[in-house]
Design brief:
heterodimer; A: mainly alpha; 12 helices; about 0% strand; B: mainly alpha; 13 helices
């Protein structure tokens, strides 16, 4: 695959991709190995409430005496899971809608109006509504965050389809009697891949932020799962006494999102200089 | 130009219709009986029946939709399940705090971002430029509640310059009102600054490489008018566009910022409604915020005509 080779070559030329990639790899590794490299994130030890960082508790303990480091490492699992899943769901749904809208003018008229409407609903509110109706679960959070991202992907794919649908090679395939499904999949879809990879990275970053926001508001995953957002929410009353309980997950969150954004910027410069960063 | 504005105005109708159908159907798409979902796990059959009747869930779907839609058009957003008060009244009580926060954020962000973007473009490649772009990338990645607590910890708790949280109505005095809004606006504005500064810089760089800019420089136009009157004015279209796009970001951010700083605005209304399963409130606020988003983007589209007269021919 040429894209892969190009990406590997780009790593050397674009240090932001390398920095972002290494950071993401480290966090992913920590998340996967969480049970082996940290203690129990749920263990309550009231004797050890709000202990400052020490050799025993690397990042101190929170207001209920829970190990902040263990919760941080376990919380990375939810952030990464939601980020990657939202990107996958939004890209699949958006690409399908974009292919149809770009290729069939009649579908286009209706679908794009629907997309304009969905885009107008703030992501956080949509997620709050779904969580209030369906109850808090990781699945609901993923779907809720993915829906508002679909229109952006759809528009991107649609614009690529519109620009290639009348090129001679597509025309040739069409006049050879290629079936529409094959035409879309074999001849049009590949052109959308580079911008989609870039867009998926940005969606992943913004999904991690939105998930943390929802957990912070108490509308995310059920409170018994440690997440970076609910760690901050449950300790904010102790900001003055124990700033590490708030800033450890906060800094982690910012670093991971920054890493994913840097990766996106680097990939964009390499894969598709045309598209500008929207949102 | 008039026909362009009229076309844009008419374009609002299908978008708001989609929003309405979407927001209304959410309640019915949920598996199970919506009344039972709203009533919660420990509800009695009587309670569920009362909720069903008060929401009109016992009538046909389309009747419900048109009744509800008609109500929304008249400004009737239904009644809160928890307090029994009209949702529109609850929203109206909290408009001031939310609008204050959004407006001050917008003001702070646009002033800061355009200044930084212009300076970065002027000294492109310099240390200043790289610093501004660094802030732009970082600002985009730090969530508003993390920035918020950092500001509170250092500026309020350590230095005691600003109040830790809360909101004072503008009627209680302008100074107190402004003092309580500084930190929330900065926290919420950072992502916005990042977005606008980036676009300002790119757009300015593009304009500054035009021939007429060289001519202006050659005939001896001073730096400030050169940057502001010749360059910024022509670089304005993408900047205004991104301000419009960013409104979505701002609206989602307002909900979280109000929770961080304990501001009694519309965002808090929604967050409090989550645990009470007060669905009419969530529904009402969604419609209102979506409407605001659509109207602001409409205003931006119309503003184009005045900034760049060429656009009306599109």
């Amino acid at each position: 695959m040429t894209t892969l080779a190009a990406t590997l070559q780009g790593l050397r030329r674009y240090p932001t991709v390398a920095v972002g990639g290494i950071l993401i790899a480290l966090v992913t590794l920590a998340a996967l190995l969480a049970p082996w490299i940290s203690g129990d994130p749920l263990l309550l030890e009231p004797v050890n409430r709000l202990k400052a960082p020490s050799a025993e508790f690397w990042l101190g303990t929170d207001s209920l005496g829970r190990d902040v480091y263990a919760r941080l490492v376990h919380g990375a699992r939810i952030s990464l899971l939601v980020g990657v899943s939202v990107a996958a769901v939004a890209v699949l749904a958006g690409a399908l809608a974009g292919l149809l809208a770009g290729y069939f003018p009649r579908v286009d008229a209706v679908l794009m109006r629907v997309m304009d409407g969905v885009m107008a609903i703030p992501a956080i509110l949509l997620a709050i509504a779904l969580v209030a109706l369906l109850g808090a679960s990781v699945k609901v959070v993923i779907i809720a965050i993915a829906i508002p991202e679909v229109p952006r992907v759809c528009r991107l794919v649609r614009s690529v389809v519109l620009s290639v649908r009348n090129l001679p090679y597509v025309e040739a395939a069409r006049s050879n009697g290629t079936r529409v499904v094959t035409l879309l999949r074999r001849h049009i879809l590949p052109s959308t891949v580079p911008p989609l990879i870039v867009q998926a990275t940005y969606i992943c970053a913004s999904a991690i932020l939105t998930e943390a926001g929802l957990s912070f508001l108490g509308a995310g995953t059920p409170p018994e799962f440690p997440t970076w957002g609910n760690m901050i929410a449950s300790n904010r009353m102790f900001l003055m006494l124990a700033p590490w309980t708030v800033f450890a997950p906060g800094v982690c969150l910012a670093l991971v999102v920054l890493a994913v954004n840097l990766l996106g910027d680097g990939l964009r410069d390499r894969l598709d200089p045309r598209i500008s960063r929207s949102m | 130009m008039l026909s362009y504005i009229l076309r844009r105005l008419l374009g609002v109708i299908p978008v708001m219709l989609v929003v309405g159908v979407f927001v209304f159907s959410l309640l019915h798409l949920a598996p199970g009986d919506p009344a039972a979902i709203i009533a919660g796990d420990n509800a009695t059959a009587e309670n569920i029946a009362r909720i069903r009747a008060s929401l009109g869930l016992d009538r046909p779907f389309l009747t419900q939709f048109f009744d509800w839609g008609g109500g929304v058009l008249r400004g009737d957003l239904g009644v809160s399940m928890f307090s029994g008060l009209p949702v529109s009244q609850l929203i109206a009580q909290r408009v001031e705090a939310t609008v204050s926060l959004a407006a001050s954020t917008m003001f702070v962000a646009v002033v800061l971002a355009v200044t930084l973007g212009v300076l970065a473009a002027w000294k492109a490649g310099s240390l200043l430029d790289r610093a501004v772009m660094g802030v732009a990338v970082t600002g985009f990645s730090v969530p508003v509640f993390v920035v918020g607590y950092l500001l509170v910890y250092f500026l309020s708790m350590k230095l005691r310059w600003f109040p830790v949280q809360g909101y004072r109505p503008i009627a209680d005095g302008l100074w107190d009102w402004a003092r309580h809004l500084v930190l929330p606006s900065l926290a919420l504005g950072l992502a916005y600054v990042a977005l606008i500064a980036r676009i300002t810089r790119t757009s300015m760089l593009e304009v500054m490489s035009e021939d007429y800019m060289r001519t202006a420089r050659a005939k001896g136009v001073a730096t400030a008018p050169l940057l502001l009157r010749h360059a910024l004015k022509n670089a304005a279209v993408p900047i205004v566009t991104v301000i419009g796009i960013g409104v979505a970001l701002l609206i989602s951010g307002v909900v979280i910022t109000e929770s961080v700083f304990n501001i009694p605005g519309i965002g808090r209304l929604v967050v409090d409604a989550i645990t009470r399963r007060d669905y009419p409130i969530i529904q009402g606020v969604m419609i209102v915020f979506a409407g605001v988003y659509v109207l602001i983007n409409l205003a931006v589209d119309i503003l184009y005509c005045f900034i760049d007269p060429r656009i009306r021919y599109r």
